[in-house]
Amino acid sequence: MSLFRTDLNETLDDIEVSEIRQFDEATSSIPDIIKLTLGEPDFTIPEHVQQVAKQAIDDNFSHYTGNAGIPELRKAAADFQNKKYGLNYTADNVITTVGASEAIAAALGTIINPGDGVLLPAPIYSAYTPLINFYRGTEYRINTRPNNFVLTPEMVEDTIKANPHVNFKAIVLNYPSNPTGVTYRPDEIEALVEVFKKYKLWVVSDEIYSELTYGDTHTSIAKYLPEQTILINGLSKSHAMTGWRIGFIFAEVEMIDQIRKVHQYMVTAATSIVQKAAVEALTTGIDDGKEMAAEYLKRRDYVYGEMEKMGFEMARPDGAFYIFAKIPAGYIQDSMEFCKDLAQKNHLAIIPGHAFGDEGEGYVRISYAADLSKLQEAMKRLKAYMDTNK
């Protein structure tokens, strides 16, 4: 007889496994499938970073570290942000986390009280909504599709004014964006800062793709609003260290002291060996992401050009490694059904736009974190599908 009980945390009723993961797993058994599904860099971790991790093992650096991470890593993370983006952090402004995902969970868990409103510019990565629900906050989505996926101060103000009885506590930003690749210019950030100040919103700013921008250097909102910003970053995308799970939270010291309480009881501390390697990544490897970004740019231009020929409408990505494309008229418009049909008939897996909320319906997301030969074959398969299924 099963001892499983159904009287669990009731918020779990509203939380499901990510549609991204569900679809990726569902298509894995298709023979000869090409998957452009997950946000997984195809590069290897830089050799010099690997060597430091090996040395840490040889040195038996295997015990607990302080909750917030080893001092040299916190300093290296602060220095990295300061040098790259003109910020003004010290080691005391940093918590080392188990990836950016844990950083987001700890940040939201610190600021949300039951019933608080949290603004989400949409479409948006699927991880934020379940966490907001779990902490018993309420999400209020702002549809950015009418403005090519760029949030404006007017959109924020309109949403707040339309819900006068809500205690709006925070807004989550993610830029460069997953799924659209859209990012923000300095003037756009400065305009948003004014409305965030006006309504005293905490800004949880997920800038994990900050090193993967094309053209202009990334602008962090923490440069203009440090007192209200909880900045999230990490090494998964910039150094292809996804499985090593190193992220960071940057904030004012008073906020760091509070977030540290949540972080401590979630994970105690990040892995000791990987922390040593992360110091190397942020110092000797401070520009490791540039080579990857240059290659991603070539891939973006290729995929964008091929899909444009097929009739897809897209915002041109300025960062990350995704293309978010509107399904052309005359084809299946339900994004899940379109992607299932494509996978079954032409053995190409891409992500349904609905995985990023209702605002993503009618779109698909393609990850171009794959080598060019794989992308070329993927575009052949997509074209064959588009030619025969209209």
From TrEMBL:
<dbReference type="Pfam" id="PF00155">
    <property type="entry name" value="Aminotran_1_2"/>
</dbReference>
<dbReference type="InterPro" id="IPR050596">
    <property type="entry name" value="AspAT/PAT-like"/>
</dbReference>
<dbReference type="GO" id="GO:0008483">
    <property type="term" value="F:transaminase activity"/>
</dbReference>
<keyword id="KW-0663">Pyridoxal phosphate</keyword>
<dbReference type="InterPro" id="IPR015424">
    <property type="entry name" value="PyrdxlP-dep_Trfase"/>
</dbReference>
<dbReference type="GO" id="GO:0006520">
    <property type="term" value="P:amino acid metabolic process"/>
</dbReference>
<protein>
    <recommendedName>
        <fullName>Aminotransferase</fullName>
        <ecNumber>2.6.1.-</ecNumber>
    </recommendedName>
</protein>
<dbReference type="InterPro" id="IPR004838">
    <property type="entry name" value="NHTrfase_class1_PyrdxlP-BS"/>
</dbReference>
<keyword id="KW-0808">Transferase</keyword>
<dbReference type="InterPro" id="IPR015422">
    <property type="entry name" value="PyrdxlP-dep_Trfase_small"/>
</dbReference>
<keyword id="KW-0032">Aminotransferase</keyword>
<dbReference type="InterPro" id="IPR004839">
    <property type="entry name" value="Aminotransferase_I/II_large"/>
</dbReference>
<feature type="domain" description="Aminotransferase class I/classII large">
    <location>
        <begin position="32"/>
        <end position="382"/>
    </location>
</feature>
<comment type="similarity">
    <text>Belongs to the class-I pyridoxal-phosphate-dependent aminotransferase family.</text>
</comment>
<dbReference type="GO" id="GO:0030170">
    <property type="term" value="F:pyridoxal phosphate binding"/>
</dbReference>
<dbReference type="InterPro" id="IPR015421">
    <property type="entry name" value="PyrdxlP-dep_Trfase_major"/>
</dbReference>
